[in-house]
Amino acid sequence: QKCESCHNNDAWSDVNFDHSKTNWPLTGKHLEVACRKCHIKNNTKSKPFNQKFTNLNNDCSTCHSDKHNNQFAINGVTDCTRCHVTKNWNPEKFDHNTTPFKLDGRHAQLACVECHKSLGGTNKGSFNYKIKKFSCIDCHH
User: Fold this and answer.
1) What are the backbone dihedrals phi and psi of residue 135, each rounded to the nearest 5 degrees, phi first?
2) Contact present, 16 and 6 (Cβ < 8 Å)
3) What element of type H or E holds 50?
4) Does residue 7 have a pLDDT over 70?
5) What is the separation, in whole angstroms, between the first and last Cα of the chain?
6) Which residues pair with 7 in a beta bridge?
7) I want to staple 20 with a disulfide (CB 3.0 to 4.6 A). Which of 15, 25, 51, 95 is the partner?
8) Do the Cβ atoms of 117 and 104 come closer than 8 Å?
9) Strand 40-41 and strand 50-51: pairing?
10) 136 φ, ψ (degrees, to nearest 5)
11) Phi and psi dihedrals of 97, rounded to 5?
12) Nearest by Cα to 78 from 93, 61, 92
């Protein structure tokens, strides 16, 4: 590919690249990330930086840590897009009513952490989303 297809002739630092024509179209918060965050890595002493523009891993876990501690992995892979969108990190696509415990009445008003407790220990910051017992007596003593 010719340099002119991505760079402006007036300034080498001006990049005119259409990311939507790749297998990773930039949307939401990804539009705010500097190109070098994904494409330039400082990883060797012999080279001050390593540029890579093709065959990059586009799994969410490449850049984001799995705060769910692999609870939603299927065959070892967590597809974050089942619940999350790129405009923020809220689980906007998640519908609790598709789970075995539908939220109704007062349950719908509770904060998630009321039921989904921290895993604690080395997993501090991760929460238990795969609750196995949810009969009334399990929470209401």
Assistant:
1) -75, 160
2) yes
3) strand 50-51
4) no
5) 67
6) 15
7) 25
8) no
9) antiparallel
10) -50, -40
11) -70, -5
12) 61
The position carrying tokens 């007062």 is 106
**Residue among 64, 38, 62, 63 at smallest CA distance from 52:** 38
Cβ–Cβ < 8 Å for 101, 93: no
What's this model's pTM, rounded to 2 decimal places?
0.69
Q: Which residue has the tokens 């760079």?
A: 7
Residue whose structure tokens are 């075995």? 100
pLDDT, tens digit, 9 for 90 and up, residues 53-107:
888 888 888 888 888 889 999 998 889 999 999 998 888 999 999 999 999 999 9
**Above pLDDT 90, what percent of the chain?**
32
CA-atom Rg of the chain in angstroms: 21
At residue 115 the predicted structure's pLDDT band, cuts being 50, 70 and 90, is: very high
**Rounded to an integer, what distance in angstroms lies between the CA atom of residue 6 and that of residue 86?**
25
Strand partners, 64: none
Nearest Cα to Cα of residue 81 among 95, 66, 93 = 93
